[in-house]
TrEMBL record:
Pfam families: FAD_oxidored (PF12831). Signal peptide: none annotated. This is FAD-dependent oxidoreductase. GO terms for molecular function: 4 iron, 4 sulfur cluster binding; metal ion binding; oxidoreductase activity. Coiled coil: none annotated. Keywords: 4Fe-4S, Iron, Iron-sulfur, Metal-binding, Oxidoreductase. Residues 238-267 are annotated as: Disordered. It comes from Streptomyces coryli. It comes from the Bacteria.
Amino acid sequence: MTAARLTEAEAAALPLLWEGDVAVAGGGSAGCAAAVAAARLGARTLLIEGYGFLGGTGTAVLDTFYGFYAPGPDAPRVVGGIGWEVCEALTARGEAFERPNTYGAGTGVTYEPEALKAVWDELTSAAGADVLLHARVTGVVLDGDRVTGLAVDCAGGPRLVRAAAVIDATGDAEVAWRAGCALERPRRERPLQPMTTTFRIAGVDLTATPSRKLHALMAEAAASGAYDLPRREGSVHRTVHPGTGHTNLTRVTGLDPTDPWDLSRAESEGRRQAAEYLRFLRERVPGYEDAVLTGTSVRIGVRESRRLAGRTVLRREDVLAARDFPDAIARCGAPVEDHDGGTGTVWAYVGGARTGLTYGVPYGCLVPRTLRGLLVAGRCLSATHDAHASVRSMAQCMATGQAAGAACALSVRRGADPGGVDVAELRGQLLADGVIL
């Protein structure tokens, strides 16, 4: 046995916790959608999440979904299905609203994270999925070249999960990495995208200082040497609660979120930067004089880490050319949004301009090249650095998660490997379930 891979004989020594059709590792946007999709199609499904709540980055770090709309005037909505159900459920509660993006990512859907936790609880419960919280995958069970289960560390100690199909929706490709899958090596192409600690403030008048003025004040304050502001084009936006704001300001560079010491340093540095940005807002920005910090993100937000090197690799040229694929299982119109190591953000639009064009996300991006019984979904799908900077939005995470969940349920029903699922049948199922293709 290695630290990551277990044989069937070694796995048999672990107490069996759960056995069924589909096990989903990671309860973020991709994993929740995958679990709901699989369970709705009749698969006995388990969703494994490390926190005590679902939603991942969507509830621990952020408060706005991007990727539902392509950028540009009168741009179309490009994601439906389970992701759009989530938006409708939040809106019906009065806990979400659409917010035009003043940069380039298209209209966002801003929501209350606490409400999103409840929505995911309700959707997974209604679908009949089993949810295991406070649990983390520590190993992968292999029978030859097939993934047959997971070792998890949970409240009761080490346990065994057995499943006919496994979905890696961990964001960091934890399952694929532990199983020995071929992975993209982001740092070989370019430095990893920076991490961001978000924070929330109350007692502010956001209308007093428009975004462009805020950026000018950031640049002026940084140039004075009185403030350490690594990013000069960040945002403070309104939330569902009057007089409050949510930030996307900090920029932690040069650290690897899959390295234990780097991640620890990043968390501390993110909080330090949050305090510095808050000091700047209070001292230099009209409307923020009485700002009160109400909380920082549960963890630092990670844009990029490990990725699968899959059957298909989505590339920059595919994105910018608005390419379609015969096995497309989702659509994306988000620009290549590269938060480089400098003070700004580099944008490159699908089709070269903000015209509402979209591209297809291939099913092959979810499929490992060698191992059977495993799919990936969400941020760790197979893409180059630049393509990943477009397809990583939470709406696309939900869309690829729904596709992975449906594919695994169909493969179990047919007694086949998810990598060999009939793509025409899968696309038909997704269309029937409201997915936009």
